[in-house]
TrEMBL record:
It holds the Pfam family tRNA_edit. This is YbaK/EbsC family protein. Residues 24-142 form the YbaK/aminoacyl-tRNA synthetase-associated domain. GO terms for molecular function: aminoacyl-tRNA deacylase activity. It comes from the Bacteria.
Length: 154
């Protein structure tokens, strides 16, 4: 697949310079970091959450986990993990388990963990299990414009 069509269109429309980085099949973002020889702290993953207000894509480094209580407290929400069927419906051009952490491309609100703020470049899933996208850190900040910048990863 190389890169999901929705993501490609969003990157192109935003004039973001990017490169795709092919790698052997990886079933998780942490495995993708390992097989691509990329530091997990520079590989952003998205975790889709929802509550009665709507969806939220929590974006954090691949080796870390969402501290749901901390995130809910900071946002005054009651977010829970979204099941795979619903994720597939919201990200129809992506393989299961390989959603890009660029919520704006899919009209989904984003919370960005502070640990991703100062990286020189960021890698993330392209929408499949065999490609990453690499963008400069400044470009990733542009892609994350409007995201809530919080501390919720452990």
């Amino acid at each position: 697949m190389t890169i999901a069509n929705t993501l490609r269109q969003y990157l192109d429309d935003a004039c973001i310079a990017y490169e795709t980085v092919p790698h052997p099949f990886a079933g998780s973002s942490q495995q993708a970091a390992e097989v691509s020889h990329v530091s997990g702290s520079r590989l952003a993953k998205g975790v889709l959450l929802a509550d009665g207000i709507g969806y939220l894509l929590a974006v954090l480094p691949s080796p870390l986990h969402v501290e749901l209580d901390a995130l809910n407290e900071q946002l005054d929400r009651n977010l829970e993990l979204v099941d795979e069927e619903e994720i597939a419906r919201l990200f129809p051009d992506c393989d299961r388990g390989a959603i890009p952490p660029v919520g704006r491309a899919y009209q989904i609100e984003v919370a960005l963990d502070a640990t991703l703020f100062d990286e020189p470049d960021i890698y993330f899933e392209a929408g499949d299990h065999v490609d990453l996208v690499r963008v400069g850190g400044t470009d990733f900040q542009t892609l994350s414009r409007g995201a809530r910048r919080l501390c919720f990863a452990y």
